[in-house]
Amino acid sequence: MATLILSFSGCSRDKEALFLDPETEEEIVVVTEDEVPLLSIIVEIKGEVLDPGVYTVPGDSRLNDLVLESGGITSSANLRNVNLAMKIEDGQSFYIPSVHDEEQEIIVGEETQGNGKIDLNKATREELMSVTGIGPSTADNILAYREENGKFSSVDELVQVNRIGDKTLEKIRDYFIVK
User: Fold this and answer.
1) Which of 13, 17, 99, 162 is in Cβ range 3.0-4.6 Å of 78 for a Cys bridge?
2) Residue 23 in contact with residue 5, Cβ under 8 Å?
3) Are 44 and 103 found together in one domain?
């Protein structure tokens, strides 16, 4: 009886590990965690959809799939700046705006309408959460940081907020201003 002991100490997270099965002498390829596609993801949709809420959808879904899963849009939905073809990722939150929303407050997906940037020093929790990539806990962290440290002096200061690193900042930077 042979025992196979696997050690991943020398494997980087973005590579495969190759082993031989001692009984069959066949190669076994072990894919690291980062390479395994998510079978399902959990995302939130709110605003002008028929059934807003949190949904579990296939990992390769697009925003359009999520809109359909939530029952479709209401008659008041404003899809002018909504990228329905956008790939969605685990943990994201989406807001489908209304035609009645003020022009400067409409921020959906990867586009802004008009000069619709959010002032970090005046933003509400809901306004922060309207930006793709900012969920409830990150919005709360931004507000807590602002309360503890005073007004933001620049958008780059967001990296000081818990759960916002350089990569996240690059994704959300264009949605904000500091006045």
Assistant:
1) 99
2) no
3) yes
Instruction: Assess if residue 170 is contained within a domain.
Output: yes
Tell me the per-residue pLDDT of 145-162, one tens digit each, with 9 for 90 and over: 999 999 999 999 999 999
* CA dist 82 → 107, 129, 132 (Å): 9, 16, 11
Contacts for 164 with CB less than 8 Å, ≥ 6 apart? 138, 141, 142, 158, 172
Same domain, 105 and 43: yes
**Domain that residue 138 falls in:** 117-179
Tell me which of 22 and 163 has the higher pLDDT.
163
Q: What's the domain count of the chain?
A: 2
pTM, full prediction: 0.42
2 falls within a domain = no
Phi and psi (nearest 5°) for 145? Answer: -60, -45
Q: Are residues 132 and 104 in the same domain?
A: no
| pLDDT of 126 strictly over 80 | yes
